[in-house]
Amino acid sequence: MDYIVRDISLAPSGKLKIDWVREHMPVLNEIREEFEKTQVFKGVKVAVSIHLEAKTAYLATVLKAGGADVSISGSNPLSTQDDVAAALAADEIKVYSWYNATAEEYKGHLIKVLENKPDIVIDDGGDLVNLLHNECSSLAGQVIGGCEETTTGVLRLEAMEKAGILNFPMMAVNDALCKYLFDNRYGTGESVWTGIMRTTNLIVAGKTVVVAGYGWCGKGIAMKAKGLGAKVIITEIDPIKAIEAHMDGFTTMSMDDAAALGDVFITVTGCKDVIRGKHYEKMRHGALLANAGHFDVEINKPELQAAAKGTRTVRHNIEEFMLPDGRKLYLLAEGRLVNLAAGDGHPAEIMDMSFALQALSAKYMLENGKELGNRVYKVAEEIDKRVAAIKLKSLGTTIDRLTPEQEKYLYGWEHGE
Ligand code: NAI
What we know:
The protein is α/β, with parallel strands linked by helices. The chain has 17 helices and 15 strands.
């Protein structure tokens, strides 16, 4: 069998992790049953690059159950769990990934995934699609289309579409309601704090937490910080988002002002250099720096390194930077997404919806991709609604249905004074 994993003997531990999340992913379970019956992906090659932990592994097995020939790698050098990758290899899925890959190894793993010559691509952040448009364009011949998981990846795709260089249609799974309203907000909100707390073993209550970016992820992180008893400051570049943060009860200010006040800083903007040299000059002794945005460019690491007279690893995933005046700053998980590089990622119940969208969007792309133009598409409303309906059913929750009179009233124009 074709695979690159750190240690295949870790497979039993990875399998236990996958079995655990499967128990908490009822929507994906229902889709798995359907795929098993219909064999919708029979003979179809699906290339996947998503943070390789248990929920992603379960998605890969669901696609395989539907007949797909899956090849998979991680989407970040620090987020792969070696036992989970080994479990996939033992399940005869082509997996190429390991934790703590060098930049060269990481890219090599993505290329191995593409060498399977995919029909469908499932990407997280845009690295696979980018390779298919550059170095690996010779492997893109039979790509029908693909799906993108995160905000940063969708932005990259939209820029490619605008520049007229996108070579196949892509589905913006991130922009589905059942994705960003839950995954970005509640998933990131919870898992970022799980990651920070278990990495540092420090208290959040009473601390001043600075969240850079009040998008869907930032809202979740700020909401959970407040719930944990922190004082929360938001920094933004968008005046409307800043007002929203203000009305949600948070203090808003520029990073230049917040730098001197924070005990914990979390960047989640999709932008670069959000925290940089001039900010390190003002920070308090002991400040913790973490990133939850897709790439490790939000906290400027070269400038932090340059500002320090020495560094050392003080705990797993915590790097201490000693500044010349005696202050110490601490960078978590090398500035990579802290919830995945220093945690297990989002809760399984959240990824249940995100990956149900991925599975159904991949099916949609397979069935409709050839008729679509080389553009970025919204997930069809019926897919979003179906995922929500199955989730509600699994929660045992009911909702009301409109009576014919209510329907006429709501959508008609004849009523009123
Ligand atoms: P969003 O577009 O909803 O929000 C980003 C916010 O950051 C916007 O309000 C924008 O105005 C603000 N912003 C941009 N540059 C800024 C700067 N220099 N300073 C302050 N604010 C700035 O995006 P979303 O969905 O919240 O995603 C943010 C990042 O998190 C993306 O890179 C995305 O791919 C990633 N992401 C990470 C997840 C994780 O598990 N850690 C999960 C989902 C998304």
